[in-house]
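Data card: per-record layout.
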Amino acid sequence: MPIQKVNGVNLFYELIGENNNPLVFVHGSWGDHHSWDLIASPLAQHFRVLTYDRRGHSQSEQLTKQGFVVEDVEDLIQLVASLQLLPANFVGNSFGSIIVLKTAIKRPDIIKSIFIHEPPLFSLIQNNPKAKPILDVVQPTIRKVMELIAHGEMKNAATLFVNQIALGAGQWEKLPPTTQQTFINNAYTWYDELQDPDSLTLNINKLADFDKPVLLSTGSESPSIFPMVMDCIENVVPKAKRIALQGAGHVPHLSHPQEYVQLIRQFCSAAEK
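The structure for this 273-residue chain is written out next.
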């Protein structure tokens, strides 16, 4: 089992592909490196693909004290450096996108390009009147999920999160049992992330000088708050491009893997030129 100790924590990772163009995936909350299974192998024909379990998730070292998003950022920086994968293309989903963006601010020199999908940076739109009706529903639901976790009801928490926040009504029942169990096992780490006041925030003005290629994607079936978040980022990042994935939601790498592979290939190839 490949384990790399970086930043004081043991991280599980998988590295596949022989190409010398590194492609690094950062998963969101609740999941793990298996989130990328449907696209990692096809992309390994063209890239050196790194997937890993973030601290507190699945096969990586579990949390023993309050964690902070700055640790996730430093974990990522040290992991890719220790595996000699710099500079690299970075792909993030959901909370993983926040980590990628914060990495771009801290270490732009290690990045070739970034491709992010729907970071939950709701703090950017908290004063947007169009976002208020949606946030008035989402935020109490988040608090309910946190309450369930605090009482040890991990399955109920995961079910509520998936059905009412992340993927939509009835989607929990459609997840494979192994994925359901992963969400249950990693529930507390999501709870921990939300105890960090900086976890869902970003000083986007610090991205104004980021001059590498950036692709921002949303799903056409996702809640409208995500395009609002992307508007804020797009308005600041000089080289940002935008795409809406038709028929997709919050996890296009699971729902539309073939299209997602093609999109990543095209974007990263263009970034090389």
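Known properties of this structure: The chain has a mean pLDDT of 97. Residues 127 and 135 are 11 Å apart (CA to CA).

See the next section for split statistics.
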